[in-house]
Amino acid sequence: MKKSFLIQFTLLILLIMFANLGDRSEEILIDDELGNAGGIRVELTGDETVFESSEPGLVPEQGGTMVMVQSAEPEHLNSFTSTSAAASRFLNYIYETLLDYDYETWRYDRPLLAESFEMSNDGYTFTFKIRENVYWHDGQQLTADDVLFSIKAVLNPFVDCAPMRSSFSKVVSAGTNGDFIFHITSSETYFRNQEILGGFHIMPKHIWDPEGLLDRYSVEDLLNSSITREEAAIKEFAESFNLNPQGRPVGEDAEPIIGSGPWLFDKWYTGDYMSMVRNDNYWGADSTFIPGYTEDGAYLDKIIVKVISDATASLTALKAGEVDFVPRMRAVQYHTQTNSADFLEKFQKVSYTVPAYSYIGWNNDKPYFSDKRVRQAMTMLIDREAYNKYIAYDMGIPTIGPFYIYGEQYNHNIERWPYDPVRAVELIEEAGWIDHDGDGIRDKDGVPFNFTFSVSSGSTGSRYMALMLKEDLRKVGIVVNIRQLEWSVYVENLRDRQFDVVSLLWIGGLETDPYQIWHSDNIGDRGSNYIGFRNAEADSIIHHARFVMDKEKRNAMYFRLQEIFHDEQPYTFMFYQRDPGAYLKEFHGVKWIPIRPGYKLYSWWRGTSTMESAL
Amino acid sequence: MDQMAPARTYSQIVSSQFKKNKLAVISLHVIYVLLFIFIFGDFLANDKPIVMRYKGETYFPVFREYGVKLLGMQWQDAFKSQQFKILEDKYEAGDWAIYPVIPYSSTEYNLKVKLQPPSMSHVFGTDELGRDVLSQMIHGTRVSLLVGFVAVAIYLAIGIILGALAGFYGGIIDIIIQRMIEIMITFPRMFLIITIVAVTETQSILNIMIILGFTGWTGVARFTRGEFLKVKNEDYVVAAKALGYKDFRTIFRHVLPNTLTPVLVTATFGVAAAILIESGLSFLGFGAPPEQATWGSLLSSARATLPTGWWLTTFPGLAIFITVTVYNLVGEGLRDALDPRLKQ
Question: Which of A163, B233, B305, B329 is deepest in the core (most CB within 10 A)?
Fold first, then answer.
């Protein structure tokens, strides 16, 4: 019986095999046009600096609540010591800075808490004239003393804000002149000084340092380690600052966070939500709020930020009416799970850009990738278009370099490397990678072309990329091993430069300084140039451009730098990311901007037809 | 009594008992099919032709692949890139190729046909890279069965030896081995496995097999020990001792064969358990490396596409269910057939 069964089975298989011989069936093609899945695609090209996805021209109304989703919860809400994006995103509505982005030119030169400012002729000193009509949420007036206190807190070596402090490492002095003049001096004429020195949150001195512990010390004192070591008060302040429970304890008993912004801190229930209410005494309510963005102060009465870490759960909450706005969903949800007529009638889907780009980093110090021809070949072997179309649901914007595609630094004159496997193989052979020993794998100087692609276990996108690359390179005689690593191990290996290939995302800004990632100073010693990019011309451009204050000249230098990047291909630059989101159509004044997180809730308002929010 | 019926050997008795259990017999045949797929997987699903005529010569690419992988042979120059489907454009008159039933390999991707429901060209549909699900399942069968058999073989070897020593000698050896078993079983097995997998440097199926082997032996050891305790005072054992046989010979030649059968029955259940654990690990992403198609990893990739893509959950899920069930049914059938109390 055993035998007869096996024979029957084999016969059946053979039969199907021969039936199959005649026609190798054609493939069914899926719809080539992905379209926008019923959503709006935010494009910030040309003169468009702010994109409105709701119907423009309506008269805004005040009132209403908005419930939005955030995937992570901050560990605490101290603006300086927190490193989480979740905290700074929330606190940006409560605290304010001296300067902010101009919403028309997207330069960092719109006075906010400052009424005006000027840079000294030598470029080292900035002087800010603080507005005289700014009041903290508790009614006290905001003065230059608060600004000085804030910078002192940052520079206090015992405050747990080392990552933030490193941006201020060139500050040499700061002080006040009367109640409303604040000046600060740097030892360098670094081009990002204005953004850094005018861009930190101003915190109220009377709340954080009621005893005036830092009053006795000047900024110069705080920078002098022999003084900070001696003086107990400096350490005492830092200890209380590090532990100050603003926004804590939770719930109804939470101590309010006193800021100066258009929203007041309301409540924080750990694991559930954080909320804020509109500041009806906002100092700026009467003046034009943000030119080109919103004419008046904030409109919504209340914003509730609900913490839902699981993407499926947050979409379910949106559909169930528990939340009004999901700023980030998965591409597959956007394209396949939110297309019902019901959903599209009730919600508006939007895909907007954020300054973050994905890349594949080739370790330039490994024998396989030390030759730029091989790196160029690798780029040409990756079908980025197909990846974007089929895996990323067309959510990527192709980029040729590290600068933001909507910023002024981006060089639009460079053509992307094409997808050209034939030319790629030629380049690999030119570089000397030929199968010398005849084992089917290319080799050079006895080293077989056999490398490891490290993939973070949470990232499906890079896993797919690795699988595709493995299959494609196998056909040209190159072996790819895929290694899945836990995120913490992955980062550890990255810093120690223990990898061949990585696939990652850099989060940048409108204007960035390539020094940290691309200068050869930052190779090794846990620097961010972990792929080991070395190029003398690039180093010199990166170094000199830092101190060129003329934007045109500086950008011309960065244009050249991008040509070098393009030729060297230290990374294969993939895409700037589109974040897909959806909000209830009852909201108006929905505007999208090119800085993180891509939207600001100041301009949002809710139509009168609103029902009470579900929360 | 013996004179009334023709004498039957032990195995004849067992096999006739076993055949009375229809479900077990069917299950056994399903296992044969699985074994067939296990052995001939490359001939069932592959992107290389089994036989092809190219420019006047006949080639056997699938066999050649074995040669390349196992014997260090070379691909012919024309086939260096191993893209046989592209070669079809270069066919001359009289050239032909016979492909396996499923003319796709488990790694071959085609983004244009991603996430296709079952159709004539992809019988079980495709996954999110456009890889053929059926082909992945066929190659996944190898992983599942291999893990099942090797892991169980490892733990049988450990368990039987330790159990035999404990049961035969008793005393201090027994106490030590018993305590070892107790320490092992205080750890929840899945938790222990995930912990070990997390600290191993590379992901490979071999690791999974070894880890499953080294964490699964306790049951077998206890069972063998029990059987030894039962048997060790039987007359033939005492006789072996009296004849001055070495302990080694007594244990392995005389006692073990008489205790082994029930142990092997539990091993059948063990195979099913190992397959299930491997699928679970792959589902969680701890198991096989990403390029290796396994049933568990197919299920896990389905999770990302839910609620669409029913074929990604249904077929691998069924495969796991059926395999685990048939091993359990065969195990049950064997246990019943071997039970003397049921002998009629």
Answer: B329
Kindly list the distances between the CA atom of residue A307 and the CA atoms of A271, A320, A411, A613, B264, in Å, as whole numbers in the listed order.
Answer: 6, 16, 39, 17, 53
Q: What is the pLDDT of residues B59-83, one digit of tens each?
A: 898 888 888 888 878 788 778 777 7
Question: Could you say which of B83, B128, B202 has the minimum Cβ distance to residue A475?
Answer: B83
Burial pattern B67-76, b for ≥16 Cβ within 10 A else e, equals ebeeeeeebe
Q: Which amino acid is at B284?
A: L
Predicted local confidence at residue A19, as pLDDT: 44
Q: What backbone phi and psi angles, to 5 degrees, belong to A549?
A: -85, -20
Chain B residues whose CB is inside 8 A of the A466 CB are 290
Q: What is the CA radius of gyration of chain A?
A: 28
- As given in the structure block, the two tokens for residue B2 are 């013996």
What letters, b where the CB count within 10 A reaches 16 and e where it falls short, cover A478-490?
Answer: bebbbbbbeeebb
What is the rounded distance in angstroms from the CA atom of residue B140 to the CA atom of residue B136? 6
Q: How far apart are CA A203 and CA A79, in angstroms?
A: 9
First to last CA, chain B: 13
Which phi and psi (to 5°) does residue A116 adopt? -155, 165
With 50 as the cut, is the pLDDT of residue A22 above it?
no
Model-level pTM? Answer: 0.83
Task: Please judge whether A28 and B285 are an interchain contact, meaning their C-beta atoms are less than 8 angstroms apart.
Answer: no
pLDDT digits (tens, 9 = 90+) for A196-207: 999 999 999 999
Whether the Cβ atoms of residue B156 and residue B263 lie closer than 8 Å to each other? yes
CB contact under 8 A, A390 and B307: no
Does B75 sit within 8 Å of A390, measured CB to CB?
Answer: no
HSE-CB at A212 with a 13 A cutoff on CA atoms is 3
Distance from CA of B149 to the nearest CA of A (A): 21
Asked if the Cβ–Cβ distance from B36 to A9 is below 8 Å, we say yes
B198 to A13: CB separation less than 8 angstroms, yes or no: no
Percent of all residues in chain A with a pLDDT value above 70, rounded to a whole number: 92
The C-alpha angle A115, A119, A125, rounded to 5 degrees, equals: 110
Three-state secondary structure along A170-182?
A: CEEEEEECCCCEE
Q: Name the percent of chain A lying above pLDDT 90.
A: 59
The size of the A-B interface in CB pairs under 8 A is: 105
For B328, the token pair is 């359990």
* Cβ neighbours around A320 below 10 Å, total: 9
| CB atoms A30 and B308 under 8 Å | no
Amino acid present at B174: D
| Digit-coded pLDDT (tens) for B164-195 | 999 999 999 999 999 999 999 998 888 888 88
Measured between beta carbons, the chain B residues lying within 8 angstroms of A438 are 74
Helix, strand, coil distribution of chain A in percent, nearest 5: 30, 20, 45
Task: Look at residue A320 and tell me whether its pLDDT is greater than 80.
Answer: yes
Q: What are phi and psi of A213, to 5 degrees?
A: -60, -35
The Cα B287–Cα B280 span in angstroms is: 8
The SS3 assignment for A252 reads helix
Q: Which residue of A has its CA nearest to B105?
A: A471
Whole-angstrom distance, CA of residue A501 vs CA of residue B231 = 60
DSSP alpha helices (H): ranges in A251-409?
A: 311-319, 331-332, 341-346, 372-381, 384-386
CB contact, 8 Å: A26 with chain B? Answer: yes
Which positions of chain B have pLDDT values less than 50? 1-2
Give the span between the Cα atoms of B156 and A417, in whole angstroms. Answer: 57
CB atoms within 10 A of CB B339: 12
The residue in chain B having the minimum alpha-carbon distance to the alpha carbon of residue A458 is B285
Rg (alpha carbons) of chain B, rounded to whole number: 25
Distance from C-alpha of A514 to C-alpha of A561, rounded to nearest angstrom: 9
- State the complex-level ipTM: 0.85
B107's torsion region: left (phi>0), alpha (psi -120 to 50) or beta?
Answer: alpha
So what's the pLDDT on residue B34? 95
